[in-house]
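Q: Convert this sequence to structure tokens.
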Amino acid sequence: MIEQKQRLSLPRVLAFSSIGMPLAAVGLPMAVFVAPMYASELGLGTTLTGLIFMFLRFWDLGTDPIMGWLVDTRPTRFGRVKHWIAASVPVLGISAYFLFMPDGDTVSPPYLIFWLAVFWLGYTMLQTPHQSWVPLITHTYDSRSRLFMWREIISTATLLVLLIVPTILAIYYDFGRRDQVMVMGVILIIGLPLTVGLALKFVPDPPPTPESSNQKFNWSLLGAAFKDPTIVRILCTEILVGIAIAATGGTFLFAAYWGFGVSSFAPVILMVFFVSGFAAMPLWTWLSRRTEKHTALIAVCIWSAITFTTYLPLSAAGGGATRLMIAAVVSGLGYGTPFILVRSMMADVIEREKVRSGDSRAGLYYSLMSGAYKTGASFAIGIPYILLGLVVGFKAGGENTPEAIRGLMYVFVGVPVVAYTLAAMIIRGYPLTRKAQAETAAQLATDDTFD
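A:
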């Protein structure tokens, strides 16, 4: 058996984190490029596209807990999570082909609904087991943040590639939005089996306990989770952060073009936003090591809420690429880190529940995290698009009045500012501190797990 204090080597950490690449290709590009493509290029409009993307994410609220239960209770001789991650590859790959590369000049709503539903199912099959892996292979307060930090770094690097490559193709080869989305789909379809293969080969999957396969799905466990104020805080924070990030991505190209007069180089500036977050991640995680995870989370949310307001005066001052770049740099410093911290905090909760109940509920609890993020992301596309279409009167593919453009900027800035502010308020006074986690870990000191 593996001794508890054996630390995951950096190559194993990178192999685990490499799955952040397809997760990144699924995540923000859906809001930044795919949703606008269906709204403006394929004839569905902002309101209908927003409604479809919003309500299809609620499909995951049923599939996520089932996937979590399967992870917790249906291990194989390969371990607890590897077989589920492997099974996600064909589901996600096939649906990505039809979603990123639709035929014809228009698509019907049923086409988008069907393939989006299959796509989110594949995403659930990949994301929930991958996150559930963390408490199985790490066992200390800060090592979990380390693992999620590397995953977020690889995710951010992937986003940069997904922005750079299509931008180069657009500038030098006149690729339109549909061509750019196609390139993203190709990257996802090729990278998915490669990164999953690395993780399956090099990252250990601890063997299941004898009682794991005897656990039965019980809806009361979900009820108990939602009665736990610590879990509810984490889930609400995940929802709000998901709203803030996805709303930014889903409306950034609109705000860049109409609010700042930037078109061709808008993806490059969005890349700067991600690079800024990438560069700041070690600083925020350092703060969490010196204080507490929730303290650093509050700090990064407050920073983001304040700095997002800079887009309004810079747009009103005449816009332009330089001003948009300044706003992207300062607001981007908060990107990505909230996901590292809040998911690491959930791993601490899972460990606490292991002590209390004797059962591993990693799959169940991370399925709730997945559902929370997807709920936030669905609201983040649905709410801004519906506001833009029905309230502001913004037209993604037509001419817009100064009032509509001003409304666009209020929506672009207002949604993340409100979301980040609420997240900072909710996480105040978080009880599962470094000291509390150390006491929990001491009770599990005889477990055979990786540190």
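The CA atoms of residues 234 and 346 lie 7 Å apart.
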